[in-house]
Amino acid sequence: MRIQQFLEHHGVSLNPFADEDAQTDPVFKDHCIASTYHPAWDKVYGNPTEPSTAVVFGEKGSGKTAMRLQIVRHLREFNRSHPGRRAFVIQYDDFNPFLDRFRDTLAQRKRRPDRLFAQWKLWDHMDAILSLGVTKLIDMLLKSRRRHADQDEAEHVQPKDLDRNQARDLLILAACYDRSLDEPFLQRWGRLRRALGFRVVKARWQFAAGILATLLVVVAFARFQGWSAFLSWWPYVLLLAGWAPWLWRLLRRWWLARGVARQVRVVKHETWPLCRALLHFTSDELGGQPLPNKDRTDDRYELLVKFQDILRTLGYEGVFVLVDRVDEPYLVNGSADMMKSLVWPLLDNKLLKHQGMGFKLLLPIDLAYYVERESRDFHQRARLDKQNMVPSLAWTGEALYDVAQARLLACALPGARPSLRSLFDEDISDRRLLEAFRQLRTPRHLFKFMYRLLVAHCNAYSDEAPVWRINSHLFESVLAVYLRDQEAMDRSGSIG
Q: Would residue 137 count as lying in a domain?
């Protein structure tokens, strides 16, 4: 008996339990994303007009990634209906590029994961977040072909809305944090400068003075002394004097660029291209401006405020940072200790409560164990009691039943109204179904069990003698095997 035959008999077009990961699940993304929510949804999502932080702990498959996708969808809809008060979304869920670059900056003896994460600081997280946000904003300003998943097609920004000071701030941010690989750094930075209408005539007078001094020295000596005068040393003294202001400026910009390249450890920088970008600013324009060239957070907070000010001018009142998949980087490799070392610097109340920003931290349940055992100093710094904390993204049997029913309806044939209850024999009571679903704990386990159950049922009967309901004996036997496998997996995970 074919599964498709069984499902079509019940008015279902395709298997609603075939996919387990929300990131690649078409049933969830096309249908259930707007109708199926965890009971803690309102607490986590909050109000887009007043960005707030939420810290969520959930086991694998409990719906953390699904919740992130739902937050993105709701914020995109909010932006459509509030074009002047939009929310800027930064999805901080792929740590591998930042960890790769960070690892390259360390000495060989410090590249072991345990030693590497001991060097990871709060400002590295801030640099990564700024890099994601700045790169996305520049893509929008330059109308890049790359469209971000959280960006609506109708969403647009006008670079001419920024005044000169804001244009300078954005160009500094771009020089320090833009990590696009679509085109060479200086070419993209130059396109941004022209799009912003940022003129750099004043910044070039020293270079022009050097050219003029060179022409005057060459013409004067060639006419009055002859070319033989260049065999002596003193014409070169005059040339050096003419170029001295520019050379001094070049040295200072190179030193700044070197500091940024060394201290921004999560973005790949080359000193000379960065130096050439900084040469477009006068000393007055760079004087007193924050640059991430020191190992501290103060400059990053100032740059974050400047970035928010730019976004506000472009119609974005709030910024949402969605943190997810912290257990997936290859250097973490699912280790709870490595996850803790990666995430703990981010749990800082000053950042999590930063005005105009809302952090949504969707964290593995493994980390809740460490939170409970942390010192008073940690809790004073993190203030998780103020962060809308959800200690466990738990599901009741009733909630999982509703999830399964919603997926059946999402996959229904035209005009059909399939029911989850109709898949089972009457000797399986509603109470027993709910109890079994409660034991499965998460949507992912529910989907895996239902898929295994459907396969086992269809394999037990032929096409010529189909049976349209799952009996209690098969249900209990498949459930017992699945729960045993689930327990073994949980035990191996806790040991690891």
A: yes
pLDDT value of position 149? 56
150 vs 409, which has greater pLDDT? Answer: 409
Q: Is the pLDDT of residue 231 over 70?
A: no
Closest CA to 11 of 419, 458, 462, 452: 419
3-class state of residue 58 by DSSP:
strand
Q: Give the end of a domain, one of 390, 413, 434.
A: 390
Top pLDDT among 364 and 159 is at: 364
* pLDDT confidence tier of residue 495, bands split at 50, 70 and 90: very low
Estimate the crossing angle of helix 271-278 against helix 185-196, to 10 degrees: 20
Looking at the structure of the chain, the number of domains it has is 2
Planar angle of CA 474, 479, 481, nearest 5 degrees: 100
8 A C-beta contact, residue 153 and residue 147? yes
Contact (Cβ atoms closer than 8 angstroms) between residue 289 and residue 257 = no
This prediction's pTM: 0.90
Q: Which of 356, 390, 424 is the last residue of a domain?
A: 390
Q: Are strands 389-390 and 357-364 parallel, antiparallel or unpaired?
A: unpaired
Residues 189, 92 share a domain = yes
Give the Cα separation of 45 and 74 in Å (integer): 9
Question: Domain range holding 440?
Answer: 3-13+396-495
